[in-house]
Automatic annotation (TrEMBL):
<dbReference type="InterPro" id="IPR010879">
    <property type="entry name" value="DUF1508"/>
</dbReference>
<dbReference type="InterPro" id="IPR051141">
    <property type="entry name" value="UPF0339_domain"/>
</dbReference>
<feature type="domain" description="DUF1508">
    <location>
        <begin position="10"/>
        <end position="57"/>
    </location>
</feature>
<dbReference type="Pfam" id="PF07411">
    <property type="entry name" value="DUF1508"/>
</dbReference>
<protein>
    <submittedName>
        <fullName>UPF0339 protein</fullName>
    </submittedName>
</protein>
<dbReference type="InterPro" id="IPR036913">
    <property type="entry name" value="YegP-like_sf"/>
</dbReference>
């Protein structure tokens, strides 16, 4: 099974999403959005940005 995005309401009644791996582990979580539609748009933006994204190492 592939990972999945979950859109949920936080304690402040804002919408957020989290990306879960197939094993259920949360691998990313979002900022707060005012609307559910905006949170879903955020999910779609991450999907588009990640498609073919390269891994780049940086020094800290």
């Amino acid at each position: 099974m592939a990972g999945k995005f979950e859109v949920y309401t936080d304690k402040a009644n804002k919408f957020r999403f989290r990306l879960k791996a197939s094993n259920g582990q949360i691998v990313a979580s979002s900022e707060a959005y005012d609307t559910k539609a905006a949170a879903k748009n955020g999910c779609e933006a991450v999907q588009r940005a990640a498609d073919g994204a390269e891994i780049v190492e940086t020094e800290s």
